[in-house]
């Protein structure tokens, strides 16, 4: 079994400039995911690869032990570029460089670092257990439910519940369970990329539900909140 762990971080963030290397509790954000990759690589004998278009990010990664001469193509560093083509390009590059074909790819998202080794181990085991599954990604229980308390506007200008079920849902507890994709990690079988996918959500995708807090860092307020939690030791599972 061979595994490639990927860390993808472009330099052109507009919402929070420089967010991938912004310090959180005295540590560049990217360092958390690199350290998780290094720990999991020791357990699985995996290789680790970096995809970036930015030399500052490359330097920050090198300072915590992840060096790379790979440069992400400009067309894959645009706001409009999807994550799957980025992973596919890096995967093919690493396979050519190492002259081997990987069985699995694990992508650790830099801006959603709240994960544990148990999360990764259990998620990987779930995917390996189901030979028909193409991939698996982490999720959190959704705070809103499209069957109960999420609405959208119709063509007539009036709103209605986003998703309808056979029975009218009158309480959150009676609604079908839904999840937020928290973006923390994604496991892929090599066959996933052979199918030329457009999205991480396929007809053969699995989920791993996290039992602890996890959220994506999209705004300066998100960074401030994570900093507060770390400084005040509110995230005992995370380091």
Topology:
Layout (H helix, E strand, L loop, with lengths): L2 E6 L14 E2 L2 E2 H16 L2 E5 L3 H9 L19 H16 L5 E6 L7 H13 L5 E7 L9 E3 L5 E3 L17 E11 H5 L10 E5 L10 H12 L8
Parallel strand pairs: 1-4, 1-5, 6-10
Antiparallel strand pairs: 2-3, 5-9, 6-9, 7-8
Strand order of the largest sheet: 4-1-5-9-6-10
The total domain count is 2
Radius of gyration: 19 Å
Q: Using the coordinates above, name the CATH class of the largest domain.
A: Alpha Beta
Quote the distance from N terminus to C terminus. Answer: 28 Å
Q: Oligomeric status of the shown chains?
A: single chain
Question: What can be said about this structure in brief?
Answer:
This protein has 239 residues and is α/β, with parallel strands linked by helices. It is built from six helices and ten strands.
Describe the structure.
With 239 residues, this protein is of the alpha/beta class. It folds into 2 domains: 3-142 and 178-231, Alpha-Beta Complex (Spore Coat Polysaccharide Biosynthesis Protein SpsA, Chain A), CATH 3.90.550; 143-177, no CATH class. 30% of the residues lie in helices and 21% in strands. The chain has 6 helices and 10 strands. It has helices spanning 29-44, 55-63, 83-98, 117-129, 190-194, 220-231; strands at residues 3-8, 23-24, 27-28, 47-51, 104-109, 135-141, 151-153, 159-161, 179-189, 205-209. The strands form 3 sheets. The chain has a 6-stranded mixed sheet, sandwiched between helices. The mean pLDDT is 93.
